[in-house]
Amino acid sequence: MRRRKSLPLEKGFCAVTSDTPRPPPRRRLFGAWGRRELQGLFWQVLVVGIALAVIGFLWSNTVTNLSARRITTGFAFLGREAGMPIADSLLAYNPRDTYLWAFVVGVGNTLRVAVIGIVLATILGTLIGISRLSANWLLSRLAAVYVETLRDIPLLLQLLFWYVLMQALPAARAAWRPVEGMFLSNRGLILPAIPLGPPQLWVLGTAVFGLAVVYLIRRWLIVQQMRDGKPRPVWPFAVSFILALPVLVSVLLRVSWTIEWPELRGFNFVGGLTLAPEYFALLIALVTYTSAFIAEIVRSGIQSLPRGQWDAANALGLRRSFMLRQIILPQALRVIVPPMTSQYLNLTKNSSLAVAIGYQDVVSIANTTLNQTGQAIEAIALIMAVFLTISLSISFFMNWYNARIALVER
Amino acid sequence: MTAIADMPEVPRAARRPQTGNPALRWLRANLFSSIPNGILTVVLLAVLAKGIFSFVQWGIANAVWLTPANDSSACRAVRGLGACWAIIPEKYRFILFGTYPFDEQWRPALSVLLFIALFYLSTRRALWRRELVLLWVGALALISMLMWGGVLGLSFVSQDRWGGLPVTLILATFGLAFGFPLGILVALGRRSKLPAIRSLSVLYVELIRGVPLVSLLFMASVMFPLFMPSGFNIDKLLRAQIAIILFAGAYLAEVIRGGLQAVPRGQYEAADALGLSYWRKNRLIVLPQAIRHVIPPLVNTFIAFFKDTSLVLIIGIFDLLTTAKTAIIDPAWQQFSVEVYIFVAAIYFMFCFAMSRYSRGLEAASGR
């Protein structure tokens, strides 16, 4: 065995410490646990204990109250006949259906307003946000006034305002016709529609398939370009797969695409696509209100880019559209996407204001159910479950998108 | 779009010769810098002129400003052509103060002024000291005394007769005053090293933020009696206030957490090195810095609460929006709701606009 060489330092070091005797280690109450750990444990036990006590108190009260009112807890009531009318719904419904189906119809209505609202608010908000940065003084001022006004008035007030305006529109007979085939009256907005049966849906399915193929082709083309540096246009593939292929299928299978024009018969309209006044008012209110917030996000996202990015792109002599698409937007998006996610969540949650004007979204239907059956806890739990699911899906999707566009750092 | 065309603003003066009338130069630079820009300006001007013209015609030229008490015939005559502003002098007492006893309405009016003074004083940087808390406690106590009465010879007014603007201000301000300490505790809890406290805070914040305020308010109005021992019940306004406090707490906690994250690590370590306890460390070192960081987003959150208090309409509490909606139930005036909504929107706008101006000023000051 080789003896380790003792370092000269070690000796001196020992000598110094041995001069001043170390104080005996502090006695610890519970083995290795120090004061800090004990304090932590104490606080945790205290807080959890209080939380449990409060929940237990509320729970026992609730159980007593429910049994006093002869309400049986549980979700069995969902199987019973709902008997409530739903005037305007995406999914087929009649009052003899169950509560469960009424809820599903409500979720459908919420999603109908939220999804279309998100798309329209994003488009409008982006346009206004860009307008605020316009070199045209008038346009940028107008955009600023729009943002400032809509942001500073409660959404519910705006919603009531739009709804009152809808109701003040002329009756169906005297409906406004801004464009041929489009009617605006107190029955809502009526648009021409194309009836979609299975054959038409198949053709649309082909277009979606074409879109997926073009996406893959585009990725492959970019890989090719990375290899030899030659740009390859993607538009011939896009035209052939997204447009030509569905048209071909449609011609071959003789799918008819007749437009159904709405017409006035008696006191109401027949045919076409009807947006009920409640839905239309809710959609307008949500879109205009949220677009004001989105406009600010887009504006600050674009402004957050250092000036050098614009200068560099200009110095390279890039065309303006190319510069925006390839240099500015990809960087601005990184700043824009996270706050945009919370705006989408806000829009979805705000769609619950529908209850104030009688559009039957999930909150409104849950509220009616609650009044009819007294199943308060279950109804609120269902609302929470629906909104938590929607919120989590939106955050999940946006986080995925955010991770995709995030800066890849070495 | 011609938008973005000149981002960032290139100093135009350098490009164009500095000749001619300065006003013309300004016009040329800002409105007619290129042909598409010029066309855009003309189109916008045309649309704007038409909009302003029809609004002036409806809102001023054809409008009815005053009518004899409770007589809307003059308004009916111009319906569709002109606005009926006469409904405002007719109904403003009800819209602003609800069913508060008519002769005592100076009390809610004074409370509104006190609220405004409180907000104004809170924006003064020189007053950002510990004493501000005392000021808030004192002002809120004074306002409660004025509204309830029952002391100093003031007659007692129960809170189910309160209504209008004071209720909106009470819901928003008390929501902030109680939600703020709650938010601080939850934000600290969410950053705590103790797993049980951290997960409770996360659960609270995510549950509240995940659902719409409407469903929380429903819960407060419908489920609260179920939660309490039988026979025990508290007033509807207080229940809505509790819901708003819980809601505010969750959102404020997230804002404050952002501030806590912005405090450099060295500050925590320095406080630990001084041997400060957890609470003293946070109270003296961390929180003052964290909160200063997030004052602009805090003001924005407060604007959002102020607007969100209008949701209590759905559970039938008489805030400003509900009194406005109730005022137009009167059959004689039913058709003139647009005018009332514009009036109320102007009140909300003034409060929110003042706050957002203030928050913008703060941001600009901190950016310098």
From TrEMBL, chain A:
A Gene Ontology BP annotation from the UniProt entry: amino acid transport
SUPFAM superfamilies, per database record: MetI-like
Top-level taxon of origin: Bacteria
Domain ABC transmembrane type-1: 107-398
CDD domains in the cross-refs: TM_PBP2
Pfam families the UniProt entry points to: BPD_transp_1
An MF annotation (GO) of this entry: transmembrane transporter activity
Coiled-coil blocks: none
Cellular localisation: Cell inner membrane; Cell membrane
PROSITE patterns named among the record's database cross-references: ABC_TM1
Keywords noted in UniProt: Amino-acid transport, Cell membrane, Membrane, Transmembrane, Transmembrane helix, Transport
Entry GO CC: ATP-binding cassette (ABC) transporter complex
Spans traversing the lipid bilayer: 41-59, 113-134, 155-176, 201-222, 234-259, 379-401
InterPro entries for the chain: AA_ABC_transptr_permease_3TM (IPR010065), ArtM/GltK/GlnP/TcyL/YhdX-like (IPR043429), MetI-like (IPR000515), MetI-like_sf (IPR035906)
Annotated family: Belongs to the binding-protein-dependent transport system permease family. HisMQ subfamily.
Protein name: General L-amino acid transport system permease protein
Automatic annotation (TrEMBL), chain B:
NCBIfam families assigned to the protein according to its UniProt record, in alphabetical order: HEQRo_perm_3TM
Database matches in InterPro entries: AA_ABC_transptr_permease_3TM, ArtM/GltK/GlnP/TcyL/YhdX-like, MetI-like, MetI-like_sf
PANTHER family: INNER MEMBRANE AMINO-ACID ABC TRANSPORTER PERMEASE PROTEIN YHDY (PTHR30614:SF41), MEMBRANE COMPONENT OF AMINO ACID ABC TRANSPORTER (PTHR30614)
Organism expressing this protein natively: Bradyrhizobium shewense
Pfam family, one: BPD_transp_1
The family this protein is said to belong to: Belongs to the binding-protein-dependent transport system permease family. HisMQ subfamily.
Compartments where found: Cell inner membrane; Cell membrane
Keywords associated with the record: Cell membrane, Membrane, Transmembrane, Transmembrane helix, Transport
GO cellular component: a single term: ATP-binding cassette (ABC) transporter complex
Protein name: Amino acid ABC transporter membrane protein 2, PAAT family
Ranges of residues in domain ABC transmembrane type-1: 165-359
Record's bilayer topology term: Multi-pass membrane protein
Molecular function GO labels: transmembrane transporter activity
Presence of keyword Glycosyltransferase: no
GO biological process per UniProt: amino acid transport
Membrane spanning stretches: 38-60, 105-121, 133-157, 169-189, 210-228, 240-260, 340-358
